[in-house]
Design brief:
Layout lengths: L16 E3 L19 E8 L3 H18 L3 E8 L2 H13 L4 E4 L8 H9 L4 E4 L10 E5 L1 H16 L7 E6 L5 H14 L4 E7 L5 H13 L6 E6 L2 H13 L14 H9 L5 E3 L2 H16 L8 E4 L4 E7 L2 E3 L4 H6 L6 H4 L4 H7 L5
Parallel strand pairs: 1-3, 2-3, 2-4, 4-5, 5-6, 6-12, 7-8, 7-9
Antiparallel strand pairs: 10-13, 11-12
Helix pairs in contact: 1-9, 2-3, 4-5, 6-7
Length: 359
Amino acid sequence: MNRTRRTAALLAALGALSLAGCGDDATTAATTAAAGEQRHVAFLAPATSMRALAYDYPNFAVQLQERCGDCVVDLYTAADQAEQNRQGEQALADGAQALVVVAADGAEAGSLLRSADAADVPVVAYDRLVRDAPLDYYVSFDGGAVGKLGGQAILDAVGDRAGEGVVVMLQGDPGDNNAGLFAAGAHSVLDGEVTIAAERSVAGWSADQAEVEMAAALRELGGRPLLGVYTAYDGLAAGALEALTAAGYGGVPITGQDAEVGALQRILAGTQTMTVFKDLPAQARATADLVADVLAGEEPATTTTTDNGAGAVPTVLLQPEAVGRAEVRSKVLDSGYTTAEALCAGAASALCQEAGITG
């Protein structure tokens, strides 16, 4: 595995963090100012996960450095689970003392967890649960609550028109355990309240594939009015909106998740109803605190346990929040999750002025 080192601008001042890519070179470099032997923590994430690169890894690394001065965080990004498993095995061989794993495919990540268990190296499943394998800790948002927030937003938008039409649901990648949690939460709110005309899973959480699935779902309506579209992620909402626009639909309530800038702009424009906001920096910091405690030989604080099929896994679950037009400033901008400059760039400038975000 070739490990290409780049220094993220956010972390450069720390001088203690290495960014690993993919290939065959097993060298590891570290430049911390701390004296003595350094402890390496591997952070493994899918190469396609923009949030992992923008929020999860940087905030995790900064917080861990604050808590553990001799810790080095090595970031590995993989195209698929097979590559991620190889990267994790290499990290173990290189002496990593903990693994934080954002599984590319939780159903296929078990072999890596078993190797770590055999090496007595603790593993934290980050955001995505890995099932049927020995797992030390799990840190995520309450997936059921995420789905409930989206489902409730559809019900609120539909109001007393529930019997006058149907709803379409676009769920996430079936290989991601979270997708099932989101779906179950949404169904717990929507079932029995609205008619679900079509429900489709979207491989890879792809916006392009979401457009394809939405177009297919529209063909299944049979002339019934479309009251709303539940989607489990902002990227799916973007793809669904492309299909809706192409088919001549407008003003259909649609949900999302992750408070991406594009989604926030659509919310301000009125083309997306809401998004589920998850404070990703807080999740990363909570994970760093957990890892620091474990490396210090202390019992980390957790909030519950999760059955992953192999046992009760100590878990930290954070709570999501619904964000509509009225909450963009108070919940997203004021938290520092994104900035008004990023949100209001270009054509969105007028939208921000209308919403009172900028003068």
